[in-house]
Design a protein that fits this description.
single chain, alpha+beta, Gyrase A, domain 2, 2 domains, 4-stranded antiparallel β-sheet, two-stranded antiparallel ribbon, 5 helices
Amino acid sequence: MINDIVNEAREKMKATLHVFQDELNGIRGNRASVALVDRLIVDYYGQPTELRQLANISTPEAMQILIRPYDTGAVKDIERAIQQSDLGINPNVDGANIRLNMPALTRERRMELVKFLHKVMEDNRVAIRNIRRSANKDLTEFENEGMISEDEKARGENEIQKLTDEFIKKIDELGKLKEAEIMEV
C-alpha cells in the first residue's frame, strides 16, 4: 500500500520533470532551436494548430530556423503567429519558406531569460512539493483509517522525502546547465 503511494508520487514527479525539460527546450540559449517555435499555435483555417503539425522545421545554421509549410497557403498564417508571439523575431518569407534569423542575445535579454528560467524552476519545485504533500496526506488518511501503522507512515514519508529531494536536485542541475548556456557569449 505504501509502495503504491510512493510509486504514484514517483510517476507524477517524473511527469513534472519531463514537462520542465520541455519548458527548458523552449527557452532560448545561444543557438537557434526548433523547440522555440514547434509548439507555437497557428490559426490555421480557424483551427488553433501547433506549428510542428503544419510545417517541417529545421536549423540549417546555428542562428537560423527554417520553416517549410506543407501547405503553402499556411505561410501567411504562420508568419502572423510568429509576429504575434513573444519571440521578438521578424520572419523573412521567401516564397514558400519562412526563415527566422536569431539576433545575438544582449546582456539585458540574457538577464531576462535567466530571471524567467528561475521562475520556471521555482514553479516546478513547487509542483514537486505539492506531489509530496498529496502523498503524505494519503499516508495520513491510511493511518487514520487503521490501514497502516505509525511506523509504516513514517517510513513512507521518509521515502517520499527522498524522492522529493532527488527530483528537486535534478531540476536544479538542469536549470544550472540551461543558465550556463544562456549566459555563454
